[in-house]
C-alpha cells in the first residue's frame, strides 16, 4: 500500500493535525509525526496500516456485505482512549456501494475522523489521467490552507475561484493555477446543507468519464470532503502490471474538517465515552451517455 493509502480506511483521525498536537479537556496530547511537523491519517501506523478482523460477511443475495472490526488501544499513535471500530461495505441494487463506519469511544474523549481513501478512474485503472473527468461538487465553501496544508481556520466561498465546481466542469480546467498539492487539488470542501438534521445524508459530488459514460454520485453525512487529484502519485506499481502516474485517479474523502480538533469554529470531531461516531457514504454508479447537470 506504500504511502498512497490505496483503498484504505484511514484514521483514527484522517487528514492532518497541525504540529502533531492538540488540547482536549485541558490536557495536551502529542502525536507521532509523519507529515513534516504534522500528523496525517492517524500517524505512521494509523488505521490504514493495521490488520482488521472480518466480523461478518454475506456473499449471496441482492445485498452482499462484509464487516470489518478493529480495536484501537488507549494511547495508540498518541491518541487518548480505546475505540471499537466497525466498517461495513455493502453492494445493493441497482448499482450502489455503501460504506458505514461506526466507532464507539470506550473510556476517554478523543477525536475521531475516519475516511475512505479510494482512488477513482472511471475510464479504467490503466487509462491515464482523470483531467477530462467531469466533476460537480455540492459544496459552496472550502477551508483554505497554509503552506503546510493546514487549514487557516477560515471557511471561504468557492465562487469565482479555482476551487469552484458548483457546475460540472472537467477536473483539469484550472489545474495549472492551483497552488501547492503537487500541482493539483488537495483541498477540503464544506458540504452544503450540513446545518439541517444531524447525520442526514446529503449529495456531495457527481463524477463522470465522458469517454466511457461511467458515472457515480456520492452521498454522505459528513461536513467535509477532501478532493485530491493524486498529485503526488508518481510511478506507483498497480494491478495487472500497470503503473499509476500523477493525476491517474481522484479521491473524494468524506470527513470532518482537517485539524478540526485545533479549530473551535469547525464542526466538532470529538467523541466522548459511550457516544457512537457514525459516518455513512454511498456511491451510486450509473451509465450516462450525456450528463444532466
Automatic annotation (TrEMBL):
It holds the Pfam family Aldose_epim. GO terms for molecular function: aldose 1-epimerase activity; carbohydrate binding. Beta-D-galactose binds at residues 15-16, 117-119, 186. It comes from the Eukaryota. Pathway: Carbohydrate metabolism; hexose metabolism. Keywords: Carbohydrate metabolism, Isomerase. It comes from Aegilops tauschii subsp. strangulata (Goatgrass). The active site is at 117 (proton donor), 253 (proton acceptor). GO terms for biological process: galactose catabolic process via UDP-galactose, Leloir pathway; glucose metabolic process. PANTHER family: ALDOSE 1-EPIMERASE (PTHR10091:SF32), ALDOSE-1-EPIMERASE (PTHR10091). This is Aldose 1-epimerase. Belongs to the aldose epimerase family. Signal peptide: none annotated. The keyword Isomerase applies. Gene3D superfamilies: 2.70.98.10. InterPro entries: Aldose_1-epimerase (IPR015443), Aldose_1/G6P_1-epimerase (IPR008183), Gal_mutarotase_sf_dom (IPR011013), Galactose_mutarotase-like (IPR047215), GH-type_carb-bd (IPR014718).
Amino acid at each position: 500500500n506504500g504511502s498512497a493509502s490505496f483503498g484504505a480506511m484511514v484514521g483514527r483521525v484522517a487528514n492532518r493535525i497541525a504540529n502533531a498536537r492538540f488540547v482536549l479537556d485541558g490536557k495536551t496530547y502529542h502525536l507521532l509525526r509523519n507529515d513534516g511537523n504534522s500528523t496525517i491519517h492517524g500517524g505512521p501506523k494509523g488505521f490504514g496500516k493495521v490488520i482488521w478482523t472480518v466480523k461478518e460477511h454475506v456473499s449471496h443475495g441482492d445485498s452482499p456485505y462484509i464487516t470489518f472490526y478493529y480495536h484501537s488501544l488507549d494511547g495508540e499513535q498518541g491518541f487518548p482512549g480505546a475505540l471499537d471500530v466497525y466498517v461495513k461495505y455493502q453492494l445493493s441494487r441497482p448499482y450502489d456501494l455503501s460504506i458505514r463506519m461506526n466507532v464507539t469511544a470506550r473510556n476517554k474523549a478523543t477525536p475521531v475522523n475516519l475516511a475512505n481513501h479510494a482512488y477513482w478512474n472511471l475510464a479504467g485503472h490503466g487509462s491515464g489521467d482523470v483531467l477530462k473527468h467531469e466533476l460537480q461538487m455540492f459544496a459552496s465553501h472550502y477551508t483554505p490552507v497554509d503552506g503546510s496544508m493546514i487549514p487557516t481556520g477560515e471557511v471561504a466561498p468557492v465562487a469565482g475561484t479555482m476551487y469552484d465546481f458548483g457546475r460540472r466542469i472537467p477536473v483539469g480546467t484550472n489545474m495549472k493555477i492551483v497552488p501547492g498539492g503537487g500541482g493539483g487539488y488537495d483541498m477540503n470542501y464544506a458540504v452544503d446543507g450540513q446545518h439541517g438534521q444531524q447525520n442526514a445524508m446529503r449529495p456531495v459530488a457527481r463524477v463522470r468519464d465522458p469517454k466511457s459514460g461511467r458515472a457515480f454520485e456520492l452521498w454522505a453525512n459528513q461536513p467535509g470532503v477532501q478532493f485530491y487529484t493524486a498529485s503526488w502519485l508518481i510511478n506507483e506499481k498497480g494491478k495487472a502490471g500497470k503503473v499509476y502516474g500523477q493525476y491517474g485517479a481522484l479521491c473524494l474523502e468524506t470527513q470532518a474538517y482537517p485539524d478540526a480538533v485545533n479549530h473551535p469554529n469547525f464542526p466538532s470531531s470529538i467523541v466522548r465515552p459511550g457516544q457512537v461516531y457514525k459516518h455513512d457514504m454511498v456511491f451510486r454508479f450509473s451509465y450516462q451517455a450525456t450528463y444532466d447537470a
